[in-house]
Write a structure and sequence with these properties.
alpha+beta; Alpha-Beta Plaits; five-stranded antiparallel sheet; 15 strands; 27% strand; elongated
């Protein structure tokens, strides 16, 4: 059998597929509202105009430039004078501080009393608890034990501010809305909102009115724990109470009824701010007492 004959004639691939189409290089001309497309050289009308309703590329670039100018571009404002030390002196007017209030509306103050965790620990804990679904909470250190938290989510910000104190990595942390009048000085820690657990409470007392009366014997009632509000467990009643840290807290209370019956209720405190055994102050342990080290 004779082998097949191979032709030496090479036919361009494009010509074989599209023999009637002449090759051309299209060009696009972008104007304010028209794109002109150059057609094949064989066509009688070599230009096709297409009217666009969307903005042109030039207009889009101008729009983006205006947005950047509004959000981040700076300008010359005021004229610095010379300080008595010889360096430039810039006076910040009160209206600049007022305008900052709107820009800092997403921020929350967080203050640790006594010792505080390292920065990385704080960032990890606050984002693991309150930003698991985003957006991320940014943490800024502005002083010893004092931080600014940028909380963009309004619901998360509301939850954080629903209590004045949280336990972050085992350290008592007080939170407050951002304010230009916020003082960086650490006031004495005299009260705190803590969880309180009651046991041997009759199940008929599992309502807000009765539990508020029991909590008032400890301090100022704040709210019911979710599991107590849903009546999931009648063995343990959990509430949040603002307590006076300068007073001794009871471990038992007696509830009485109009028929003369009395019930002994035990009280426990699952978490309390750290108290120093050396100086008696809250917020640090005895082995880290700064007052003791000065003596």
């Amino acid at each position: 059998m004779n082998p097949p004959q191979i032709s030496n004639r090479i036919i361009p691939f494009k010509a074989r597929l599209f023999p009637a189409v002449k090759a051309y290089v299209p060009s696009v001309v972008v104007g304010d509202s028209v794109i002109a497309v150059e057609g094949p050289a064989s066509s009688s009308n070599s230009t096709v105009a297409v009217n666009l309703s969307s903005p042109s590329l030039a207009q889009q670039e101008r729009n983006w430039a205006s947005l950047l100018k509004d959000s981040s571009q700076l300008e010359e404002v005021g004229e610095p004078s010379q300080h008595v030390t010889g360096v430039p002196f810039v006076l910040i007017p009160d209206e600049n501080i007022e305008s900052a209030k709107e820009e800092f509306k997403d921020f929350i103050f967080a203050r640790f009393h006594g010792d505080s965790p390292v920065m990385g620990r704080i960032i990890g804990v606050v984002n693991a608890i309150w930003a698991r679904t985003g957006p991320r909470i940014f943490v800024h250190n502005i002083g010893p034990g004092i931080y600014l938290l940028k909380v963009s989510n309004p619901r998360t910000r509301e939850i954080l501010l629903s209590r004045s104190m949280w336990n972050i990595a085992g350290f008592p942390t007080f939170v407050a809305p951002w304010s230009p009048e916020f003082s960086l000085e650490v006031p004495p820690l005299t009260s705190a909102v803590v969880p309180v657990e009651f046991r041997q409470v009759p199940y008929l007392l599992f309502n807000k009115q009765s539990l508020s009366r029991l909590a008032t014997a400890i301090g100022k009632p704040v709210k019911l724990a979710p599991e107590t509000e849903r009546k999931e467990n009648f063995e343990v009643t959990k509430v949040y109470v603002r307590i006076d840290l300068q007073k001794e807290l009871p471990s038992k209370i007696v509830s009485g009824f109009s028929n003369g019956r009395e019930v002994l209720i035990s009280v426990s405190y699952p978490w309390m701010p750290v108290k120093c055994c050396e100086c008696g102050h809250y917020g640090h342990e005895g082995n880290r007492c700064h007052i003791k080290s000065l003596q």
